[in-house]
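Internal tracking record. Fields below are filled automatically when a chain is submitted to the structure queue. Please do not edit lines marked as system-generated. If the sequence contains nonstandard residues, flag them in the REMARKS field before resubmitting.
Queue: standard
Priority: normal
Entity type: single polypeptide chain
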Amino acid sequence: MDTFRPRFYTPQEVSVHNRPWDLWVSYLGRVYDLSPLAEANKGDLLLKPILEAAGKDISHWFNLKTKDIQTHIDPLTGCLKYYTPQGRFVHIPPPLPRSDWANDFGKPWWKDSSYEVGILSAKTRRIRIINTLTSQEHTLEVCAEESLWEILRRYLPYNAHAASYTWKYEGINLDMDKNLQQNHIPDEDEEFYNLYMDADSFTPAILLYFNDDLTEL
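SYSTEM-GENERATED OUTPUT FOLLOWS
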């Protein structure tokens, strides 16, 4: 079985990477692994705000139009400066010129695409996957944007032969190249919320029917 790295990540998946040696954040719809940045700046006080943000979404640090860190007029100098109420962090220049500040690091980390690992899902969904051969059932949180093939990959830890099954919803074969909505598996979370009902009690079920040819991914 090959190692699968998803295109999309749930906020929950990002949140578990919350240690200095395994430090992820999300911002502006993307997910970033800042572990190398943390390692390169170990012991630097300017790393503290980033360590505190580990596993979280920091989109509020950014200006949505410029995709850069928020700015403001510094009341002391009257100059336009980066706005960092959480504290000045790595690659943010000091408020006043200093001879000991090295600015030869190239791109600041928030503009360096090499840290990017994927896309933050705009909406997650819960689905039940029922193996009709074994009667085993698993509930997964998946990304609404993911195709059924990508969801199948998420399910592989529970069933290594998942590709040897026909996937169906309400008796209809699913198109594995399409996502849940495109396969007419409705997302009714908002409707249940408006009705004060627990959406988790009505999680849609995908049924797996075993095929004759046993193949592994």
